[in-house]
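Researcher: Sequence recovery benchmark, item below. Answer with residues only.
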């Protein structure tokens, strides 16, 4: 399930995932306990008459428990009990995880790691994690190659198994498109910007000419920036692990394009994952938004019943991914073999398909895409859009991009220190770019 702008620095994404397919109420992040909560189960015993208890440490609302996967595992393994611990926010969870890994204590048997943190974990904690690539039940061929690579350390050992990813589309308001004289059918909408994010900008200019009063083409320049950089390779780091954001022309081109949305008055000038942004969904303040799979549930929640049938989903101009997570098994655990089996089972294609169907987390196991829970998935809130097929095609086209140890920090700084100033205060893009680069250097003591 991932943090995905599951907000890498906050908790909004967990709720978004829980509501993706409109399959029932979510357990919001705010209610997640900070202490272990037992999962209902029989009193399991091992062959020697003693309980075998495995703990899983997560952040936000991961969905494993809510989708019934722990209960299913315990039915298959009567000698095992599974208990989950959860912290609401990754920015609280992750520093604790690093502390516990370094100390070799206080760890769950299986721990979740957000994609923005995975490179740092593999670079600094590899000797404290078990190899999972050769664990029973793990099939490398079942996973997207780029996702598998993200969980593989420099020495070639795969230490993290992918859970979800955030393949991207564009969500749009059909009613607003119609009033602005743009096509409304999803294939025709996708053709407006197929192959090039600059065509998405051009569509925005067309929308602006006849925009319904009080509406903008898209929510924010930062959202555009995240979407475009999500399909860039290399992005913030190169294959050697060196930070290249300042000199990478692809990132600067994405920056300039996102800034053009702000400078041309095409955004609602909102900051994502804030109360004002949430309210804008309900108010119909913008017509499109770059939309990873997990955001569908967020839109449904915030736009409410009035948005049903007005929103639809079209392919993004180019494939990209925004978000995702992994499971690791700490070497300090007492039940490492059993923990590896559990991690392998939770991330297997069948379970990933179940998690998508019940909670909305899009599988990182490409072998799940042919399963009916994914292949036949449609979303009634979004005009019965074939979301399984749309996001599967996007996932298969995502380029392999190196992930660096401070990927999350770089992304957050570009958005909230740099592009937000362009969007909301009219700061010159060059000035905001240099301010963001300085902030990144300062944060990394460069």
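Model:
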């Amino acid at each position: 399930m991932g943090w995905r702008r599951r907000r890498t620095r906050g908790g909004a994404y967990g709720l978004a995932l829980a509501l993706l397919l409109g399959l029932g109420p979510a357990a919001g992040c705010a209610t997640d306990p900070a202490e272990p909560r037992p999962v209902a189960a029989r009193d399991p015993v091992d062959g020697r008459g003693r309980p075998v208890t495995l703990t899983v440490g997560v952040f936000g609302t991961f969905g494993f428990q809510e989708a019934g996967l722990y209960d299913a595992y315990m039915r298959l393994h009567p000698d095992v009990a599974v208990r989950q611990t959860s912290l609401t926010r990754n920015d609280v969870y992750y520093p604790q995880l690093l502390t516990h890994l370094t100390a070799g204590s206080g760890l769950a048997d299986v721990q979740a790691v957000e994609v923005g943190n995975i490179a740092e974990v593999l670079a600094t904690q590899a000797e404290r994690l078990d190899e999972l690539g050769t664990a029973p039940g793990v099939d490398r061929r079942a996973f997207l190659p780029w996702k598998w690579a993200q969980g593989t350390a420099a020495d070639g050992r795969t230490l993290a198994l992918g859970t979800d990813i955030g393949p991207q589309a564009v969500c749009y308001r059909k009613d607003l498109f119609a009033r602005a004289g743009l096509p409304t059918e999803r294939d025709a909408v996708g053709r407006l910007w197929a192959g090039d994010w600059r065509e998405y900008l051009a569509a925005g200019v067309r929308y602006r000419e006849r925009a319904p009063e009080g509406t903008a083409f898209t929510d924010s320049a930062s959202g555009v920036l995240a979407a475009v950089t999500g399909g860039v390779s290399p992005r913030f780091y190169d294959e050697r692990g060196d930070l290249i954001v300042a000199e990478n022309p692809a990132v600067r081109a994405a920056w300039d394009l996102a800034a053009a949305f702000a400078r041309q008055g095409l955004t609602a000038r909102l900051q994502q994952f804030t109360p004002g942004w949430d309210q804008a969904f309900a108010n119909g303040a913008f017509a499109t938004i770059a939309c990873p799979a997990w955001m569908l549930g967020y839109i449904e929640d915030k736009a409410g019943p009035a948005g049903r049938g007005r929103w639809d989903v079209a392919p993004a101009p180019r494939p990209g991914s925004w978000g995702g997570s992994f499971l690791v098994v700490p070497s300090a655990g007492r039940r490492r073999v059993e923990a590896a089996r559990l991690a392998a089972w939770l991330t297997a294609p069948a379970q990933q398909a179940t998690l998508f169907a019940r909670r909305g987390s899009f599988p990182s196991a490409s072998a799940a895409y042919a399963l009916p829970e994914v292949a036949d998935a449609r979303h009634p809130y979004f005009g019965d859009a074939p979301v399984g097929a749309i996001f599967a095609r996007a996932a298969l086209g995502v380029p392999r991009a190196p992930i660096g140890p401070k990927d999350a920090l770089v992304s957050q700084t570009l958005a909230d220190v740099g592009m937000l100033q362009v969007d909301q205060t009219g700061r010159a893009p060059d000035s905001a770019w240099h301010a963001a680069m300085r902030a990144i250097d300062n944060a990394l003591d460069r």
